[in-house]
Automatic annotation (TrEMBL):
Annotated coiled-coil segments of the chain: none
Main location: other
Keyword match Oxidoreductase: yes
Highest taxon listed in the record's lineage: Bacteria
Domain Dyp-type peroxidase N-terminal: 51-206
Cofactor comment text: Binds 1 heme b (iron(II)-protoporphyrin IX) group non-covalently per subunit.
Catalytic activity: heme b + 2 H(+) = protoporphyrin IX + Fe(2+)
PROSITE patterns, alphabetized: DYP_PEROXIDASE, TAT
Organism: Nonomuraea monospora
Known cofactor(s): heme b
Compartmental location: Cell envelope
Residue ranges of domain Dyp-type peroxidase C-terminal in the record: 218-401
Name assigned to this protein: Deferrochelatase
Family according to the record: Belongs to the DyP-type peroxidase family.
Length: 415
């Protein structure tokens, strides 16, 4: 039986959709044709080797949602994933969630679609699903298929995680150039899943904080700095095979062609940062604020020179600068594909903005990529004075859906 708390969780998803509905923003991005449609209004292909929404050029808006599975019936879960896949294939092409849509069914029956996206284009919508470690328990007979890469993240120094906004059995990342389209998609998946899943937590995001294609300009985070300059890009085919996509030999054949997702909600102490001098801000990050160039260099994409000294004989890029501690050269060349978003969730009641970065990173193995990088940052990054990690998620995102006869996670549930 679904608890009152779970029912309220689903209701909150609907309320979020209605509350965001009045906001319409479309970001026209110059994106490469093989990874997107001709404009920000057009659909992104749903079927393919990999799920869309990973290397897809990052859209401007996000609605990320984690779900708890409330049924203990394996067949019901598989049926839900099949229904979700069919709805996602329709929604990402600018169609309504069900065949009868918002107004085409019997008047006495609930509609097949909630209707708030009627008349809106596809807006580059992508829907990406992931499975949390908690799904691989005795309920569904999946204990033997838990990937080693889903090992629990360690407790990092200084983090202040809230369990209520962390974890989850399933996650859905909904990205689009129109916030109403992104929220509409999640709302309809929650509606379809009623009685089988319940919303655990969700996060709205705006203004991408990474570029996932070289055709995109580097965006800025809420600290005002360019973010994700050296991010993995969809054009980096060899690096993507090495650093992003899971392979058969990694130990979980059902994940081949998928990737592992880490999310972190990182709240920024905006008011303190805004009173910090420009020179100190640049030393903390290791780049200049205007161009985004590494300190001591001229252009954003210049190589970082960690050996260079300034006039005072000290390293231009300090030992505890953010870019030094996060750089692949200090972590066995480990890299991430980041596609995070800014967020502002009102204030904390004391007049301080509840704002920051919703960090999203895809990789082949979090144990060898995210974990060592984050440990280095958590232990020494001077930026920690201005940020707090308040939520965390780790999910296995399976390969793409090949055709209309396939569904999200089919290989996981195959006998």
């Amino acid at each position: 039986m679904v608890s009152r708390r779970k029912l309220l969780g689903l209701g909150a998803a609907g309320a979020a959709a209605l509350g965001t509905g009045a906001v319409v923003a479309r970001s026209m991005l110059d994106e490469p044709p093989r990874a997107r449609a001709a404009s920000a209004s057009d659909p992104v292909p749903f079927y393919g080797e990999h799920q869309a929404g990973i290397v897809t050029p990052a859209q401007d808006r996000l609605h990320f949602t984690a779900f708890d599975v409330t049924t203990d019936d394996r067949a019901e879960l598989v049926e839900l994933l099949q229904e979700w896949t069919a709805a996602a294939a329709r929604l990402t092409q600018g169609k309504e969630a069900g065949s009868y849509g918002a107004v085409g069914g019997a008047p006495e029956a609930a509609p097949d679609d909630t209707g708030e996206a009627l008349g809106l284009p596809a807006s580059g919508l992508t829907l990406t699903i992931g499975f949390g470690a908690s799904l691989f328990d005795e309920r569904f007979g999946l204990t033997g298929r838990l990937p080693a890469q889903l090992a629990a993240l360690p407790k990092f120094p200084g983090e202040q995680l809230d369990p209520a906004i962390s974890g989850g059995d399933l996650c859905v990342q909904s990205c689009a150039h129109d916030p109403q389209v992104a929220v509409h998609a999640v709302r309809n998946l929650a509606r379809i899943g009623f009685g089988r899943v319940a919303v655990r937590w969700s996060q709205l995001g705006f203004g991408r904080t990474s570029s996932t294609s070289r055709e995109q300009v580097t965006p800025r985070n809420l600290m005002g700095f360019k973010d994700g300059t050296n991010n993995l890009k969809l054009e980096d085919s060899a690096l993507l095979r090495e650093q992003l996509w899971a392979a058969e030999q990694d130990g979980s054949p059902w994940m081949a062609g998928g990737a592992y997702l880490v999310t972190r909600k990182i709240r920024m102490t905006i008011e303190t940062w805004d009173r910090t001098s420009l020179a100190e801000q640049e030393q903390i990050i290791g780049r200049n604020k205007g161009e985004g160039a590494p300190l001591g260099r001229a252009a954003e994409f210049d190589e970082l020179d960690f050996a260079a000294s300034g006039p005072d004989g000290q390293p231009r890029i300090g030992e505890v600068a953010h870019v030094r501690l996060a750089h692949p050269s200090f972590h066995g060349q480990a890299r991430l594909l980041r596609r995070g978003y800014n967020f502002v969730d009102g204030s904390d009641g004391l007049g301080r903005l509840d704002a920051g970065l919703f960090f999203i990173a895809y990789q082949r193995d979090p144990r060898r990529q995210f974990v060592p990088i984050q440990l280095s940052l958590a232990r020494a990054d001077v930026l920690n004075e201005y940020i707090r990690h308040v939520s965390s998620g780790l999910f296995a995102c399976p390969p793409g859906v090949r055709d209309a006869g396939d569904y999200w996670g089919r290989r996981l549930f195959a006998a």
